[in-house]
Structures are given as structure tokens and as C-alpha cells.
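Hi P.,

Sorry for the delay on this. The queue was packed all week, but I finally got your sequence through. Input first:
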Amino acid sequence: MNPSKTVELATPALIIDVDALEKNLSTMSTRHPGSKLRPHTKAHKCTEIARLQLSHSHTSFTCATPREIIGMAAAGIGSDFLLANEVLNTDRLSALAKVSENVQVTIAVDSIETINAAVRAGLHDVLIDVNVGLPRCGVAPELAGQLADDARKTGMTVRGVMGYEGHLMMVGDDEKRKTRVAESMKLLARAAQDVGGEIVSAGGTGTWDMHDETGINELQAGSYALMDTDYAQLKIPFAQACFVLGTVISRSKDWLVIDVGLKSLSTDHGNPSVDGYDVLFCSDEHITLVLKKDSAIGLANIGEKLLVRPSHIDPTMAMHSVAWVTRSDEVLECWQIDLRGW
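Then the structure:
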């Protein structure tokens, strides 16, 4: 029997507020219409959400895994995909090469090894991934031009550059964040001049409104669609659209326990939040909650449902196979989280 109300859902259950989602998509597409936004699929891993992004005129997508690109292409969503991640596995890259017979597939490279892996798989288009300050992937800016030359010698088409200023997403002061983003993007601009190509790709949800003068021509934001409590600290104009619904399964006079835990949401960006409560701690299957000191409510009763706001949306989505689409307490649809895996 399909549930029609959220109270009927077995928990833990992933919940999407469809009105908040739609508002978030509209806000972003107004600022970054069409190809100015390359939405990052890793944040939701769901073709139905990608289909909504497509309806907002975005036809190019950023992906973190070959699986995301393969699934999107199979669903007929999008025509230009960027794998914004270094991949060496021949089988996975060969699967992308097959997809590239029908849609544009470009992969990020930051070494001769990643270039050679792409060549062996039969791929043809790359972006040079440039390190702009985050100690993760990316070639040093001053070496980007040489790497582009090396790629072209193999027959590759170098479409441009990408860089991710992820180390700046959570700088709390807006002006400081904007200043540091501008400094970071100077590194990418230098590399773009040496590399050539038409694409300069960067950015994320935390810097969504800070690239008007940085020289990038596409933004790779993803979390804006569903949001989490970490990004909510920045007071950006995107609403929490995704929750994990839990049931109170135990209660004492001082605390209660819900059946949401580390297996149903990520805590790498801090504890989740529940209105009216403080999180005492999270464990595998449980969250223990105590009332906030100024809370006007009493402890919920056993059997009651509570909404939990995740602190990091991307890995939380990867923990669930389906999401229940809701409006208020009404269940409208069930969407598959069908782009999980690698």
C-alpha cells in the first residue's frame, strides 16, 4: 500500500519538500540561467531532480562519478556532461566513451596518467583541473598550460579549465569570502590563459553569487537544490528542502530517541538538527535528543514523527534508495535515488 501521508511512512525516510525544491531551483536559475549553471548531480543523485533542473533550461551537468553520467544519459537528461573528478579505471572510462557516442562527455584531468587513461578508454574531450587552493585534485596553475599541450599531443580536445574553491565555501563573512574567492579565481584565470579553450568552470553553492567578475563562465553548484544545515549558516536564499523523517522509539523523563542515525544521514559537517531539540549524540541507528533550554514544547511521545535536518546533503542522499516527495504532510510521489554508486 502506497502511503498518502508522511505519518504513514516507515522510518527512517528521506523526505523532499517539493515546493522548497522548486523555489531553490527557480532562485538559482534566475541568477544563472541556461549554460551559466552546470548543476552538480552528486548533491542529489536523482534523475527526477535533474529532470526538474533541465526544465529550468540547464542542459549541461557536472557529475562526480561515471555512474552519474551513464544514468543521466540513459534517462535522456542533458546533452553535455562534465566528470569533475579524476578517474583511472579503464572499465569505467570505457563505459563513458560509449556514452560519448551520443552526448558530449568531458572529463577532468590533472596529470599525464589521467590523460593516458582517458586516451586508452577512447575518450576525446578534457578540462584541465587546476588547484586553486583546496588541497585536493588539480594541477598547479603554472603547470596547467604544459599539461594542456601534453593532452593535445595525444589527440585530445582541451575544452578549457576547471577549479574548485571548496576551501572557501564556508568562510562566514561574506566580504572576506568574496575577496578570497576573487584571489583564488586569479589562479584559475592565469591557467585559463595558458590552457585556452572556451570553458572556465568553478564555484559552488557557497559562492553562488560571487563570480560576476571572476571570469568563470559556468557555475558548478549542487547543494542549493536540497540544502543542508551547514550551508544554511551562510544565510544564502535557499531553503531546506530535504529531511530525514524519524519516529520516536524510546523516551525517558529527560531525553528521547528517534530511529535516525549514522546509517541514514551524514554527520561529517556536524550534528543534524531537529526543531525544539538539541542533539545529545548520534549512533548507528539512533539520535538521542534533549529539549532546548528555551523550548516551548514538551518531549514528543513514543510513536510521534520528527523531521531531521541533515548537516551534509550529498552523502545523506547516497544512503537512501528512494525519496518521498511531499507537500505539507501529503505524500505526492516516490523518487528513486538512482545515480548512486561509481
